[in-house]
């Protein structure tokens, strides 16, 4: 009998795909596999036989594990499936919002955002802060922000965090910094004089409304594709996505200029 193409072996059957993924962390007994996949032996055995025929899985007694080839395949397969999951979950948001400011190396890691939530506040709450994020951030040791628009509670939030002795690193677009400097010079100078604040200006174009990062979570607001303001938020508190947000902040930081006075 002619062997199937490897791509068909892996992806043409949910059972085969799930068996491979389940064995990623080590061999499993058949009873465990059946329970985890919620299936029965007669339905699963033919699929496992196909995996064995293509040298992806081996049998030892009543247990199954990945062969060397199987490990190579699954190591490549998992990131691909995570990326597809993330794109499927967030395709509407990504296709309608401006992603130009996300560098290629971070877009290639879009799978890390697969567990994030897209939140759309009601009309009356369009400019409200993300309440869950704010409540959790109260216990943070530090906060990081990127802002390109004047949030209504911008200065109030800044004062609140500083009063709680939370260190702040903040990157503003040149336009926003000039606005704050012209309209709130005294408040800005007082803020710059605070040792708990590091203020930066980003002189390049930023296609992001805001990025707010606490010790363990973040909120990202992108502009719509036509560069108009969008109230939708990417909210995440998973460690993998959190690392992504920190790297995104560092991407802006490398070209930002420290401001110590006006």
TrEMBL record:
Segments passing through the bilayer: none
Cited Pfam families: FilR1_middle (PF08350), HVO_A0261_N (PF25213)
Domain Methanogenesis regulatory protein FilR1 middle: 127-254
Domain HVO-A0261-like N-terminal: 7-86
InterPro entries: FilR1_middle_dom, HVO_A0261-like_N, Tscrpt_reg_HTH_AF0396-typ3, WH-like_DNA-bd_sf, WH_DNA-bd_sf
Domain of life of the source: Archaea
UniProt name for this protein: Putative transcriptional regulator
């Amino acid at each position: 009998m002619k062997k199937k193409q490897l791509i068909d072996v892996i992806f043409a059957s949910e059972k085969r795909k799930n068996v491979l993924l389940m064995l990623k962390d080590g061999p499993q007994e058949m009873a465990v596999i059946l329970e985890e996949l919620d299936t029965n032996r007669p339905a699963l055995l033919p699929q496992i036989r196909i995996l064995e025929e293509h040298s992806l899985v081996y049998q030892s007694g009543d247990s199954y594990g990945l062969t060397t080839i199987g490990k190579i395949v699954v190591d490549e397969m998992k990131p691909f499936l995570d990326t597809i999951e993330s794109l499927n979950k967030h395709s509407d948001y990504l296709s309608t919002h401006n992603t130009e400011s996300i560098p290629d190396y971070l877009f290639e890691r879009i799978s890390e955002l697969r567990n994030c939530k897209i939140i759309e506040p009601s009309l009356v709450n369009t400019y409200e802060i993300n309440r869950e994020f704010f409540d959790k951030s109260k216990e943070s040791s530090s906060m990081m922000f990127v802002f390109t628009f004047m949030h209504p509670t911008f200065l109030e939030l800044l004062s609140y965090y500083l009063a709680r002795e939370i260190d702040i690193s903040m990157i503003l677009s040149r336009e926003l910094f000039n606005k704050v400097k012209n309209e709130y010079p005294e408040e800005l100078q007082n803020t710059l004089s605070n040792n708990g604040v590091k203020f930066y200006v980003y002189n390049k174009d930023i296609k992001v409304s805001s990025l707010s990062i606490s010790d363990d979570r973040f909120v990202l607001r992108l502009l719509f594709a036509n560069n108009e303001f969008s109230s939708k938020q990417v909210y995440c508190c998973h460690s993998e996505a959190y690392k992504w947000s920190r790297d995104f902040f560092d991407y802006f930081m490398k070209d930002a200029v420290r401001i110590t006075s006006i």
